[in-house]
């Protein structure tokens, strides 16, 4: 429980260097003066660190674009994307996307392909990921130093073992181990909602919010929690499965064995039912239908919105976040519907009332949220050793 | 995110000293050799630390009781209870208990009194706590250096502000501030289930479990979570209110404004209904009725057990603990009922299946669990400076 830290002087230097890199990586270019202030270090320490990093090509210093201020502009310290490149892999039910992401979070190159029943088997996905990575890395002349994988499933974080990814129909796949040996770099595998939460926390709507929950609907519904600035995980690194919170006893059967899981009431199929679309409608059809929904037809969403609200009240009462970010299909809900959900959650949650009102927002990172989360998971182990 | 620590040499010594004290405090007397092994420090560092602590009377070394082993027994290092004493306060709906707790967790003296409608007002409780503490401290000739308060309510941890304690009928009470100025020591105020979780984690059934949830039923139902060895809190230090997770939409009305909260289905009133007792039955009556329940009457508990199970499936799916500890009234449930609940939760929770089976246990600390939790909350700030 005691959190006072301990280290030798060379560890102090490494720690300061990693903190500086992390700040540049997550928050973007800054002057030396800003780095000193934000890191609480003195100017001479910053000078030594920046000079060292510039010498090894990890950062460069550049005159900023001319602004309105008078006088000589301060040099900006910029992270050099090529100094540390990670591979991000986003495995979804309909497609796989991979990207090489540089220091600073910029996507340097990407590739993606559709999945069909036929090509969704673990062996096929793994083979295709490796081939595609090799091509992309050769194309860009870059070598990733670590990889992060996002996947809609129950994942043991410690070794990247996929216990179950029901919508992919994967069971017990040693994904972490297999990719580590094929790619020959450290590989982190995470649940997609967990990594979405990480991306929104570091680069999206939840920047600066140290207690937040990300809830995303695709085919399934998942959630990730950041508590006191750190990702919340359970035993063996498993994250919670918020989509399998039962909200409607004796409701629809869920593949998990329960009835009335939140996922069965607010997942893609439930949204299709609300919109009077066939349950197998494509993402494009659903999003277009939501966009074009007439004022009079918005009532179709009432029951769907009520189940979303009820589950969000539970989530807020259980985790006490300052902000909930909705992702995936939820970002397509009409603004008045989202506003009403927010009001209701603030009104009906005891913990929100204690907090003076939880905020409900939508993802700012769009389709890249899980890819960027996978990249950040990979960067976690990298910034100490760049 | 980088967690590598930084410190100066004197901080290192203080950190090692606090770690050693924490180990003795939580885990009990140990030989120097055991301390060296468990803390990963060398023998000479341990010697310096123990000698220093013995000199200032914080520990003493003693020959252990003769065992079966041959040869000279190693000296045991024992924490001296009087070296650091905290005040623990447990405010419940029916009573208040206070205790002076010494280093090592021993209760050195205690007092308690019943509360009635008339004496439950914040002013009366605070006055009585202060008077009673003064008497107890004088009696024992001890001066507490910090205080911890446990309370069934929504508490802002940062300053001990009680937003709402519905069963006490308290709203917006600056409890932390008022006790701090009256007692003239640092005061930590926590939600009772949160502090129960802390006590079970450090001294009870959940010792050694770094991911656990404590769920307790008294009049209300509360829960506390330890995740990766640390108490889980939300924004502003508020903890979740698991009792207000809606499990039964359109169920009974709850004072929180929702219908079908878990608390309305598994709290004291629900247990009375299940046992065909009047809802205002005393704790003693309920416990006796549970104890004497005939085999044939156990079926009365079926519906109650189903709601308990359903909520526990949700809790396990949301937090992914290795262990759930049930406290309060739940400890009185017949063993076969508890066993069946455990089986069902393991069977019906996706996350439990991934984990290879969550364990469900009952509190080992009995009525003292919240008092001991309050003491541990107070000790958190103390062990660094003993």
TrEMBL record, chains A, B:
Keywords: Kinase, Transferase
A Pfam family of this chain: ROK
Keyword field contains Transferase: yes
GO molecular function annotation: kinase activity
UniProt-listed SUPFAM superfamilies: Actin-like ATPase domain, Winged helix' DNA-binding domain
Signal peptide: none
Family of the protein in this entry: Belongs to the ROK (NagC/XylR) family.
The protein's name in its UniProt record: Sugar kinase of the NBD/HSP70 family, may contain an N-terminal HTH domain
Species, as recorded: Prauserella marina
């Amino acid at each position: 429980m005691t959190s006072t830290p301990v280290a030798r002087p060379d560890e102090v230097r490494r720690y300061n260097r990693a903190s500086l890199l992390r700040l540049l990586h997550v928050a973007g270019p800054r002057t030396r003066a800003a780095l000193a202030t934000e890191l609480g270090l003195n100017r001479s320490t910053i000078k030594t660190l920046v000079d060292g990093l510039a010498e090894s090509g990890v950062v460069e210093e550049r005159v900023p674009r001319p602004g309105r201020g008078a006088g000589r502009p301060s040099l900006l310290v910029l992270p050099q994307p090529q100094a540390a490149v990670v591979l991000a892999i986003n495995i979804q039910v309909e497609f796989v996307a991979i990207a090489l992401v540089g220091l600073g979070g910029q996507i340097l190159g990407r590739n993606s392909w559709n999945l069909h029943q036929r090509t969704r088997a673990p062996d096929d996905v793994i083979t295709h990921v490796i081939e595609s990575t090799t091509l992309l890395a050769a194309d860009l002349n870059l070598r990733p130093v670590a990889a992060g994988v996002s996947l809609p499933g129950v994942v043991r974080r410690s070794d990247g073992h996929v216990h179950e990814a029901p919508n992919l129909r994967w069971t017990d796949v040693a994904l972490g181990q297999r990719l580590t040996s094929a790619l020959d770099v450290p590989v982190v595998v995470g649940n997609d909602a967990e990594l979405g939460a990480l991306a929104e926390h570091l680069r999206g709507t939840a920047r600066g919010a140290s207690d937040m929950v990300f809830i995303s609907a695709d085919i399934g519904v998942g959630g990730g929690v950041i508590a006191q600035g750190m990702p919340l995980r359970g035993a063996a690194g498993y994250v919670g499965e918020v989509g399998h919170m039962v909200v409607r006893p004796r409701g629809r059967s869920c593949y998990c064995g329960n009835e009335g899981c939140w996922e069965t009431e607010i997942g893609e199929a439930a949204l299709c039912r609300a919109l009077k679309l066939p349950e197998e409608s494509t993402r494009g059809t659903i999003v277009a239908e939501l966009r074009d929904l007439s004022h009079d037809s918005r009532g179709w969403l009432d029951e769907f919105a009520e189940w979303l609200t009820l589950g969000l009240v539970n989530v807020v009462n259980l985790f006490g976040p300052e902000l909930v970010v909705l992702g995936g299909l939820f970002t397509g809900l009409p603004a008045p519907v989202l506003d009403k959900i927010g009001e209701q959650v603030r009104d009906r949650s005891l913990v929100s009332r204690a907090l003076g009102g939880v905020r409900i927002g939508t993802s700012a990172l769009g389709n890249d949220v899980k890819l960027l989360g996978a990249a950040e998971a990979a960067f976690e182990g990298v910034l100490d050793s760049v």
